Amino acid sequence: MGTDDSEGVPPIDRILDLAVAYNGRDVKRVNHLLKVHSFARLLGIGEKCGPGMLTVVEAAALLHDIGIHEAERKHGSSAGKWQELEGPPVARELLEGLDLDPAARERILFLVGHHHSYGSVDGLDFQILVEADFLVNIHEEGMDVRSIESLGEGMFKTASGRELLERLYLR
After folding, report:
1. Domain membership of residue 93 as a residue range
2. Which of 37, 44, 49, 119 is most exposed, with minimal Cβ within 10 Å?
3. Which residue has the higher pLDDT, 3 or 115?
């Protein structure tokens, strides 16, 4: 962990290490990316994503908020639009040199650059990322039951996501 000796290490494990290292002592953001990644993996498996899509889902989950530090530095805000603007260049740099399919790399960057643009959801990988992020944000933001129900009706499309939302927050 934290070394340049990455031979034989799966790309997701390298991305996890790189994302944690990039966030440094920002434990709040490290915890957030770990939780979103876990839910995204769980949803990806539940939705029977193949290995390629699961790699995209997991990588995007680990990197989805990677632009926050740059957004705060450049724009004085961590608002979604600034995360989407600043995230892809940081993610591209972190992904450089990893053994990833070029199409998968571009999809990861697209997801990082659009993860707050809910009207742009264009595939199962994107839907899973959105749902995983919401599953974490509901708890972190202390949402009330009515807001959770409304969010569930509007944003949760996968069977696995709806089931997890219900199990965690609505039963």
Report:
1. 11-170
2. 119
3. 115
CATH code of the domain containing 109: 1.10.3210.10
Q: Is residue 25 part of a domain?
A: yes
Which residue is it, tokens 């962990």?
1
Each as own residue / partner, the long-range contacts of residues 44-52 (CB below 8 Å, 24 or more positions apart, any chain) are 44/125, 44/128, 46/158, 46/159, 46/160, 46/163, 46/164, 47/124, 47/128, 47/158, 47/159, 47/160, 49/124, 49/125, 49/128, 52/101, 52/104
The pLDDT assigned to 38 comes to: 98
Written as six digits, the tokens of 68 are 């926050």
Task: Provide the strand spans (E) within 14-150.
Answer: none
What does pTM read for this prediction?
0.94
Cα gap 51→70, rounded to integer Å: 31
- The one-letter code for the residue type at 129 is L
pLDDT digits (tens, 9 = 90+) for 25-36: 999 999 999 999
